[in-house]
Design a protein that fits this description.
The complex is a heterodimer of chains A (about 675) and B (about 220). Chain A is mainly α and about 675 residues long. Helix content of chain A is about 70%, strand content about 5%. In chain A, helix 11 packs antiparallel against helix 12. The model of chain A has no long low-confidence stretch (mean pLDDT about 90). With about 220 residues, chain B is an all-alpha fold. Chain B has one domain. In chain B, about 80% of the residues lie in helices and about 0% in strands. The termini of chain B are far apart. The chains are: A mainly alpha (about 675), B mainly alpha (about 220). At the A-B interface, helix 24 of A face helix 4, helix 5 and helix 8 of B.
Chain lengths: ~675, ~220
């Protein structure tokens, strides 16, 4: 019998083999079906193995050393509960994306640009999670980044995609540099890069602070923490939609895994100020991400910005867990970490679903711009239903899964008055308020996305001619939608499955949920608060059906068609409908001036002039303009300046060498 | 004790003489006299190495001394003389920096290397210590010659004198294997040949061995 980690590694090897096979086959006609089918089968097996390991919850780990990599280190791989949870997320996301790809892949114009990298990308993410030494971790991390970069550039001829790939590459290498430095600090002067050795060392407080900041830079740039998020809304939408789903739904989770692995597992007992940084960044990310999403008209970019918001929410959960753990509140810490991990799972489900839906809309209409869509609920009813489930789930409405994790998060926020530090006592409720704001804005954002794209009347000819997508894509979407509902009404199962993870990492766990009556979940104790997704769903179902029944029973049954009130427009064209920008306008008025320096420019021609009046909206991406552009300009300026060094005379080169030597000698003479 | 003190004094004098001759090299403004001074430099180096061989009782160092004498004091200066004659090179050296500032800079460099070496190696053998300080001065002065001259031949001479400093440092330390020194000597010879060929090529193309013509050729301003 193979050990669990060996099984996982064989799945990875199989994925890599599929990647190689797809290079051979990629130009044949049925390659896509074969490759996606094999990838899906492997991912299902890997999910099952990881899930089995997680649910059994035995307090042991499964390790494997391969004789590759650094000669004195080898490549260590290990499966523990944290890893197995993230492997479930990754491989399930991979399986769903492969299923979706079975249908969606037929529309690919250049399949040989996608097929080899898709399984390789999945293999890279699996390896990052399994890695048990810093060298393997960084190597696999880079492999994952490069595979996803190749997928981002799959449609490299489309405008903006090459630039997106470039920005992604720069940010990814910056992130890896930060991780490299972090692991260098962790390994210390002894230079043992195995995670077991790092875990056993006592780290100095200064080193811990630096490692935390470097991890926030390294893992945070991959996960999309503001202000390191700039690549994410460019790169995620540029990839084919099932890859976008993987990048948004799954790869950001791998980054979060890296953060948890280092900060919770390797650094040892946290101190309270660490949580302040994480909480602050998480809250800023959540609010800014969803504000950006609100302003966006491109469906896939909106989803990418929403990913940033969700990453912020997850980081708030992690920050809370750090705060509680630092003060020894194991139960509250377990609650916060469970909420964060639950949200990881939820986000991977509904964000994949939403990207699949966006991909379906894209294949069916060729449009990503919401202002060219509309009325799709009549033309693509099944996709629209699945998208509706996704939108409701991501808006954190009961009885779906998004509500449960956010509710758990707020339960953790409510534990904050017990914290002894005044800074945290004041900060955590403020962060909770930011979280509430983000949740409300997310709901508004997805009402906008769904309302503009799927309701109303078609705003363009392609939207009018749209048709339902293939059955593979629909199956993938419906499976995810069903899981969103399932995790929403039976959250106790997920919480209990997560308990070995929190026991491993924090030494505590939430109360056992399986014993609760009526499938309720109880974060702390029965007497304080509880939630029952099933009852909420039954209540909603009874209310809605009885309302419908009463209306249809007692109101007039006759179907009447009459002239709708035209708001004063005698000839309503579809362009006169509510648009995405009009939907965002109230939010833009409130937050836009501060967050985006938004200005409305109204060009009103004087009476007698026949020109149309125009409303132009000016938005600024302040992070880009204030943060990144100056850096880019400074780099460009210094590169231009240093370029002169390339054209010096021989004597000047000699003089430079000479001056350097003398300066170094002087430094030595003065210092020693 | 008496002998040790004498040994110390003589090697000190020879190494100090080498530094002094490096200064002479800085001062020269004629090519022939520069080459003569360089030959003298090599002779003093050979003497110094031979003296080290004597007091360290290391016969292989005599080989090094012989190599220095034959190659650096005779073959290379003669060859350079012939090159200068054959190429009809202008025999005055255009210095990029005036003689006065160069001499001042040279003194600064010697002071720097003294301060540095004496401070860095307080517990070393005093003989090796001072030897190293002088050797570093010779290396730095050789570099200074290379930097302040525009003429390719004088840059070659600067390079060779720099290498003399390296040999001085190597022999001052006890136990340097002969192989290393021989290979260093041969690499210098090879470098000399390569540089000589380049000199011919530069001369052929530009009718001058002033390296500034190279810069003009590249279209660079100086």
């Amino acid at each position: 019998m193979m050990s669990a980690v060996a099984l996982q590694m064989s799945c990875v090897a199989a994925l890599l083999a599929v990647a190689v096979l797809s290079i051979v086959l990629s130009r044949s006609r049925n390659a896509a079906a074969l490759i996606y089918g094999m990838t899906m089968a492997i991912c299902v097996v890997a999910t099952a193995v990881a899930m089995n390991w997680l649910i059994r919850g035995v307090p042991e780990t499964s390790a494997l050393v391969l004789p590759v990599g650094l000669p004195w280190l080898g490549a260590h791989f290990r499966l523990d509960h944290l890893a197995s949870f993230f492997l479930v997320v990754v491989n399930f996301g991979g399986a769903a994306a492969s299923l979706y790809g079975l249908g969606y892949g037929h529309h690919e114009t250049e399949p040989h640009r996608v097929l080899p990298f898709f399984p390789a990308f999945l293999a890279g993410m699996n390896l990052v999670i399994l890695a048990d030494d810093a060298f393997s971790f960084l190597l696999c991390w880079e492999f994952m980044s490069l595979a996803s970069w190749a997928l981002v550039l799959a449609h490299h001829r489309e405008a903006g995609n090459a630039a997106a790939g470039y920005v992604y590459l720069v940010m990814a290498s910056f992130g890896t540099l930060a991780l490299l430095l972090a692991f260098g600090l962790l390994a210390g002067p002894a230079g043992d890069y195995g995670f077991a050795a790092i875990r056993a060392t006592q780290h100095a407080p200064g080193a811990i602070g630096l490692v935390l900041i470097l991890m926030l830079l390294g893992a945070g740039s991959k996960a999309g923490l503001v202000p390191l998020h700039v690549w994410l809304p460019l790169a995620h939408p540029a990839a084919p939609s099932h890859v976008s789903a993987l990048m948004s739904g799954v790869m950001t989770k791998v980054a979060i895994y890296g953060f948890i692995r280092v900060v919770f597992d390797l650094l040892g007992q946290p101190t309270w100020w660490m949580s302040v940084i994480v909480l602050f960044l998480g809250a800023v990310t959540a609010v800014m991400g969803i504000l950006y999403a609100m302003m966006e008209q491109d469906l896939k970019r909106l989803l990418a910005y929403s990913t940033i918001e969700n990453v912020g929410v997850i980081f708030v959960g992690l920050g809370l867990a750090l705060a509680f753990q630092a003060n020894g509140f194991r139960l509250a810490a377990a609650l916060a970490l469970t909420a964060a991990l639950f949200h990881v799972l939820n986000h991977s489900l509904f964000k994949s679903l939403l990207f699949f839906g966006a991909g379906a809309v894209l294949t069916s209409t060729g449009e990503r711009n919401m202002d060219k869509l509309g009325g799709l609920i009549h033309r693509m009813p099944k996709t629209s239903f699945a998208m509706l489930v996704g939108c409701v789930a991501i808006s954190a409405l009961p009885p779906f899964n998004g509500f449960v994790s956010e509710w758990l998060m707020f339960q953790a926020v409510l534990q904050s008055p017990d914290l002894p530090q005044w800074a945290l006592k004041i900060m955590v409720p403020a962060v909770g308020a930011a979280l509430a704001l983000a949740a409300a804005l997310a709901a508004a954002c997805f009402v906008k996305a769904y309302g503009i794209a799927f309701l109303g009347r078609p705003r363009s000819a392609p939207a009018e001619a749209a048709g339902e997508v293939d059955r593979y894509s629909l199956t993938a979407m419906f499976v995810l939608a069903a899981l969103c509902l399932f995790a929403g009404i039976l959250p106790g199962l997920v919480i209990d499955a997560l308990s070995p993870v929190t026991i491993d990492i924090l030494g505590g766990r939430m109360p056992v949920q399986a014993n609760e009556a009526w499938l309720s979940i109880v974060p702390i104790a029965d007497s304080r608060s509880s939630y029952n997704g099933l009852l909420v769903m039954v209540f909603i179902a009874i209310c809605a059906s009885s309302a419908a029944f009463f209306i249809h029973r007692f109101a007039s049954r006759a179907l009447r068609r009459g002239p709708a009130w035209g708001c004063g427009f005698s000839d309503p064209v579809p362009a006169a409908q509510y648009s995405g920008e009009s939907f965002a306008q109230p939010i833009r008025r409130v937050f836009g001036t501060l967050a985006f320096h938004a200005r409305d420019h109204v060009a009103m021609p004087p009476p007698g002039d026949t020109r149309p009046a125009r409303l132009r909206i000016e938005l600024h991406d302040l992070v880009w303009e204030r943060g990144y552009r100056p850096i880019a300009e400074a780099v460009g300026f210094s590169a231009g300046w240093l370029n002169r060094l390339q054209f010096l005379t021989i004597r000047r080169y000699l003089s430079l060498v000479f001056a350097t030597l003398v300066t170094l000698l002087l430094v030595l003479a003065i210092w020693s | 004790m008496q002998l040790h003190s004498l040994a110390f004094d003589v090697s000190h004098t020879l190494a100090g003489g080498l530094v002094l001759i490096s200064f002479l090299m800085l001062y020269q403004d004629r090519l022939y006299s520069l080459l003569n001074v360089f030959a003298l430099h090599a002779v003093v180096l050979a003497l110094s190495v031979a003296w080290q061989a004597f007091i360290q009782d290391a016969p292989h160092l005599y080989v090094t001394a012989a190599i220095a004498l034959v190659f650096k004091a005779i073959i290379i200066p003669v060859a350079l003389h012939r090159i200068v004659q054959r190429l009809g090179i202008h025999r005055d050296i255009e210095a990029a920096v005036g003689i006065g500032p160069t001499m001042l800079a040279g003194m600064g460099l010697v002071a720097l290397s003294m301060v540095l070496m004496l401070r860095v190696t307080p517990e070393a053998d005093p003989l090796a210590r001072e030897d190293l300080a002088f050797a570093l001065s010779v290396v730095l002065l050789g570099l200074l010659v290379m930097v302040t001259r525009r003429n390719a031949v004088s840059q070659v001479v600067g390079f060779m004198s720099l290498e003399n400093g390296l040999v001085l440092a190597a022999t001052g330390a006890k136990g340097m294997p002969l192989v290393v020194e021989i290979s260093v000597a041969f690499s210098i010879l090879i470098a000399f040949i390569v540089i000589g060929i380049f000199l011919f090529r530069i001369r052929e193309r530009f009718d001058s061995v002033d390296v500034s013509t190279l810069d003009d050729f590249r279209g660079e301003r100086r």
